[in-house]
Each structure stands twice: as C-alpha cells, then as structure tokens.
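Form 7-S
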Amino acid sequence: MEPVKLKSCLKRIKERVDLKEHQIINTNTTDFPNAYAGSTDGDFDINKFTKGVRVDIISEKEDELEFDLVGVDAAIANSLRRILLAEVPTMAIEKVYVYNNTSLIQDEVLAHRLGLIPIKADPRMFEYRQPDQEEGSAEDTISFALKVKCTHNSSAPADATQPDILYKHNNVYTRDMVWVPVGNQADLYPEGSVAPVHPDILINKLKPGQILDLRMDCVKGIGRDHAKFSPVATAHYRLLPEITLTQPITGTDAHKLKECFSDGVIGIRTNDNGEDEAYVANARLDTCSREVFRHDNLKDKVLLSRVRDHFIFSVESTGALPAATLVSEALKVLMKKCTDLSEKLEHDEDS
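Output:
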C-alpha cells in the first residue's frame, strides 16, 4: 500500500467508526490513547492531549444538561458516566421508624418506596454516618415525620362516588412529609430548603380509619451502595454522527434520501440546474438507523460514520442537585481517583 494511502487509512481508523450495511468497522480500542498499530505519532503526549480536550455546553436547564466532550478516549467518557451513576453522593431515606401503619402496604414495602423518594438537600453539607452510629446528628442526618389519618368527608355530596371527594387524606403524598430539624439545623438551613424534590409523589392510599405514623432518617450515600442514592435519572452518551454524501443526489432520490433519516438531518435545496438536491442539514440529529442501505440506488452514495473522540453527553438529575453541579462533582471524583492512583504508584516505586 502506498505511504499516502496507508496514512489516510490509519487516520480514518483513529478518528472514525464507520457504519456499513451489515457491520460496524473501526470499533477497536487501545490501552493508550492514539496507540494504534502502525501509528507514527509516537507515545502519548499529555500536553497534546490537554490542548485537544474541550467541553461545549449545548443546552442547560436546572435538571438537564447536554454537552459535548471532545478529544478524549472512550474510557474517560465512560468513567465520567459511571461516576455520575454510582459515586456522586446524595441524601436518601435510610431508616424508617414505623409507629403505626394500618394501610394495606406492608412496612418493608413502604420503607422501600420511601427510600426511592429524591430528597432536596445538598449532600456536600453533610458527613457520612458511621456504621456503628445508632442515632444521627445534625452533621449526618436529615429527619422527616409523616403522620396522616384518613377520615370521611362530612361535606361530600350525597351522590359522590369518587374517593377523593368522599374521604379526606385518602392519598398520602410527599408534601405530607414534614422536616424535623436535628440539632441546630433550623439555624443552618432556611425553611423549605430541605424537602422532597417533588411534592406530588404518591406514597400510599388510605381508607377511613387507616393511619400512617412514621419517622424517616436520611443519610448520605452513593449509588454504588444502593440505587436510591444515585443522583441522576439518566446519564448517557453517544458518538457524534457524521454523514458524507459522496456524490450529488437529486430529484426523487433526494426526497427518498430525506425520508431515510430522522427529521432535520437531510435538507433539500435547489441547485444551479434548478433541481432538488439533498444536503446534510444537521447530522447530530441522526440516530444511525442505516435505513439508507436498503435502497440500492442510494447506499453507494452515502458514507455513515461516527466521530470517535466526540461524545454527546446527556445528564438528567433527580433534582437533589443541578445537573451541571453533578457533572462538576463527578469530575472531582475522577480527579481524586487519578491522584490516588498516581500517589500509590509513586509509593510503590519508592518502596
């Protein structure tokens, strides 16, 4: 193979994952970034790597964040994703003290439901409770009380049939949970700053005479120990799609090509000859369905690929902390892991 062609092939392998009709090629990875067979770039260069890394914020809301992480290896992107899922701490209900429960839901099932309620409280303001610690303190525990009794609604119309009209407090929601400050927490945290994230989560259903009387203690934990501590509803990434039209596609073929992709991916414009011609409007919206390969008159005119080092990240918070804050905290955890590993390697070399 000619040196120029070989260099071009190596560049393609390093930078793109190609989607073919019956397979996906160039999916191989390496132990070290850019260390591919036949590569002439030499060893990994931290300065070159640092200059090539960038983060582009695409959209940001309180609980949702989409950003592009560019110039990193898949291992780093996946490490960030896994840390978001399992190693960024939050506060969640750990212990439930049941004083009275005459509802149909058993104590154990009810405690499990309560544990999955996201709690709006900054975990950075709290410490981890020690395993042998029986009672919580202001530094490591948030306490809630829930006391509800269902009664008949004396003012309900005679022809009413709906439970919401016939009874009072027949539905128990998270808004019924009352924060009980521990120690001096009332002075440290403003009223309303500690509460369930969503006030309308249904906890239980009661009939007249049934009672719920509980106390709940929240502690700090991570998703690796239990899913209830996971701070994200979802955290995932995908590679940036890339679509290349290898030759002009006009007329009815242009419109057929547009139908092969998601809305907004392929556009139609009028060329110099007055014909409708297809062009790539926004490859980012593509779901890489490969529908185009089903058409013999189109499949050789389109090249589908994904950019190997361009990750589109989507993070959705459960509400305990803003999504952007969660990403920042995940990066701190990742940096600490790197520092700990570096110190251990230095210690092993010295010993």
